[in-house]
Design brief:
Strand content: 15-25%
Largest sheet: 6 strands, parallel
Number of helices: 21
Number of strands: 24
Low-confidence stretches: none
Distance between the termini: 62 Å
Radius of gyration: 28 Å
Structural class: alpha/beta
Mean pLDDT: 92
Shape: globular
Bound molecules: ligand ME8
Strand order of the largest sheet: 3-2-1-12-13-7
Length: 651
């Protein structure tokens, strides 16, 4: 890793839907590394953005009757908003529809055409739209996409190909000779095996759907969305302007992504492209695992089982009483602490609350709530002079800092957080053993000064080390320690014992992390969710009349129920997957669990309010409402009396 500059990237995300916890995971992980390198005083370029030319995006826009341009503009704005809310400190947000990027792709493709690395041939095979991936006959799993299991479309058309095969041997040797290039190790071996199984030339164009970047010199073809997307890393570093060297970012130091897009794309086509362009390869590709739902399904936009990270933060804020900004930091913390980076993990709100109580309210909260109030009580809020006997936590501080830095250099977030928590444990043990209250009672003022100084100093180092993970919380503690008012900036070289200026005025304030009663909190959220999902109360009062135009604003559709399952710990709620004839089936949460057994709902043709504003109910996203009749329980379901194609309009 270069010591002067640090270029880090996330994948650029498809904008057919809003971000979910998986995207937040990758982007937060990148954010932590970016902040870590900034803390060390390096020049950092942190890139993220949106991938906008996919077929599924065109279809999502069409499904909403919107112009693709207007649709992607609105969606890209949502993604930026999410990154703002999640405290993501990106340096550049790239969109594949940026004119600068379109120019970069066309320059790159034209150059590869000229040198014969991109050539025209005929493609015959299959295409999976949700995965935006080409497959050959033998690669299909029972006639469906081998990656996601959904139906594929047959494609036979003249198409352009990139000569990946020509670089296979070079790439294989490169990966063997550079063991750090692809991580974790298990993924590196998978990639080597994938290359050994034979790399075919990649199809890099599609028949132009009227949306996407046009192939240079071939107006009837558009550039395949993956070639378009991968180029973003070059665009942002100055490729189109011929400024790659001048800007000095190239090559990326770390590229993060999920394991789904490593072997087929980032570890093969991508480095092969760079080899063809004679450009240095990224220093390191790190593929992390998947966040799964409680029942082991991958969380995915296309599958509709989205966990909304902002919703989770808001729920946490609601049940704990902390400001949402603090809750966001707690979600960031949870994501990187819960699972070793590289492995799969499963997300549950109860798990988040558990860590909130144990790690934040207890361990971090204890050190805070002991140190600052004691300084207020015994020293009128002024950090005392250290004097003789101070430095009792010096060893713990230096061990923690070393481990933390080493872990972050090797992209081990969990290890880095554990290092901080070891220091917290040492700090809490120190209070317990030195008993500042007893020193006060015995009027051992010099010793008390030393203990209070050491504790505040320890808290300062904890805050520095925590700041890449929980930037808002770190700012808050920094302020309470009086460091902000004293104009002290958090810098890496100060992560040592004894660097706390004396005479600072500290403020204890309210506890940052009040303990949450987990069972009560879950019950409360469930009750609210049930209320939100319950059929509306029948209206006694006379209803206002509405015009036909007003009625037409309701988008009522026939939907086929594909899956039904109970929402965990919610007696009345079902999570249903409903086919509305759209590209991806919808997920709807409905309060029908006490009225119907799942099999009574399965395959029924129900009526859905399709344009109801999506809501997150108990961390489960619900998009649409199923209509039912009646005040009496059980309610009756509104169904079509014969089979209708999903998506049919109800008038
Ligand atoms: O693949 N768990 O975009 P995408 C963990 N546009 N991470 C997850 C996840 C999950 N359940 N689901 C998604 C694309 N991710 C392309 C990339 S790059 C040149 C083009 C994260 O919107 C993970 O990083 O489908 C994964 O690789 C990425 O989101 C896929 O996002």
């Amino acid at each position: 890793m270069s010591s002067e500059k640090f270029y880090i990237t996330t994948p650029i995300y498809y904008v057919n839907d809003n971000p979910h916890i998986g995207h937040v995971y990758t982007t937060t992980a990148a954010d932590v590394l970016a902040r870590f390198h900034r803390l060390r005083g390096e020049r950092v370029f942190f890139l993220t953005g949106t991938d906008e030319h996919a077929t599924k995006i065109l279809r999502a826009a069409e499904a909403q009757n919107r112009e693709p341009r207007e649709f992607v503009d609105a969606m890209a704005a949502n993604w930026r908003k999410t990154w703002e809310r999640m405290h993501i400190s990106y340096d550049h947000f790239i969109r594949t529809s940026d004119p600068e990027h379109v120019a970069a792709v066309q320059t790159l493709v034209a150059r590869l055409q000229e040198q014969g690395d991109i050539y025209l041939d005929e493609y015959e095979g299959w295409y999976c739209v949700p995965c935006e991936t080409f497959f050959r006959e033998g690669e299909l799993g029972e006639g469906t996409c081998p990656d996601c299991g959904r139906p594929v479309e047959q494609v036979r058309q003249p198409a352009y190909f990139f000569r990946t095969s020509a670089y296979a041997d070079r790439l294989h040797s490169y990966i063997e000779e550079h063991p750090d290039f692809i991580q974790p190790e298990a993924r590196r071996r998978e990639v080597l095996a994938f290359i050994e199984s034979g790399l075919r030339d990649a199809c890099v164009s599609r028949k132009h759907p009227g949306w996407g970047i046009t192939m240079p010199g071939a107006a009837e073809h558009s550039v395949y969305v993956w070639l378009d997307a991968l180029t973003n890393y070059l665009t942002a570093a100055g490729y189109a302007e011929g400024a790659l060297v001048r800007r000095g970012w190239w090559p990326p130091d770390v590229q993060l992504m999920g394991k789904d897009i490593l072997a087929r794309f980032h570890a093969t086509i991508w480095p092969a492209l760079l080899m063809a362009l004679n450009l240095p390869l990224p220093e390191r590709l790190f593929a992390h695992g998947w966040w799964l739902t409680d029942d082991g399904d991958k969380i995915s936009k296309s599958r509709g089982n989205v966990v909304d990270p902002w919703g989770a933060a808001r729920d946490l804020a609601e049940v704990s009483g902390v400001p949402t900004r603090v809750a966001v930091d707690a979600v960031r913390y949870f994501l990187l602490r819960e699972v070793t980076f590289g492995l799969d993990g499963s997300f549950s709100f109860g798990g988040l609350l558990g860590r909130f109580n144990a790690d934040l309210a207890n361990d971090l909260g204890n050190l805070l709530n002991r140190t600052l109030p004691l300084i207020e009580r015994y020293r009128e809020g002024q950090v005392p002079m250290p004097g003789p006997g101070a430095g009792g936590l010096e060893e713990a501080i230096s061990a923690s800092r070393e481990k933390w830095a080493q872990c972050l250099e090797t992209i081990d977030y969990r290890g880095a957080l554990e290092a901080i928590w070891e220091l917290l444990a040492a700090g809490n043990k120190f209070v317990h053993e030195r008993e500042p209250w007893a020193l006060h009672k015995a009027q051992k003022e010099v010793e008390l000064d030393a203990v209070l100084y050491d504790l505040a100093d320890c808290l300062r180092v904890v805050t520095l080390l925590l700041s890449p993970f929980m930037p808002v919380v770190a700012e808050e503690i920094w302020e309470r320690l009086g460091l902000t008012a004293a104009g002290v900036r958090p810098v890496w070289k100060d992560a040592e014992a004894g660097k706390l200026p004396t005479g600072l005025q500290v403020t204890a304030g309210q506890p940052l992390f009040p303990r949450v009663e987990i069972d009560r909190a879950l019950q409360r959220l469930t009750a609210e969710a049930e209320k939100a999902a319950a059929p509306p109360e029948p209206q006694e009062a006379e209803m206002e009349t509405i015009s036909y135009e007003e009625f037409r604003r309701l988008d009522l559709r026939a939907g086929r129920v594909l899956e039904v399952e109970k929402v965990a710990k919610a007696d009345k709620l079902y999570r249903l997957i409903v086919d509305l004839g759209e590209e991806a089936p919808r997920q709807v949460v409905a309060g029908l669990a006490q009225d119907f057994a799942p099999e009574e709902l399965l395959n029924r043709c129900v009526v859905v309010v399709a344009n109801l504003e999506p809501a997150t109910i108990r961390g489960v996203r619900s998009h649409g409402m199923i209509l039912a009749v009646g005040e009496e329980k059980p309610v009756a379901l509104v169904v079509a009396d014969r089979d209708c194609p999903p998506g049919s309009v109800v008038r």
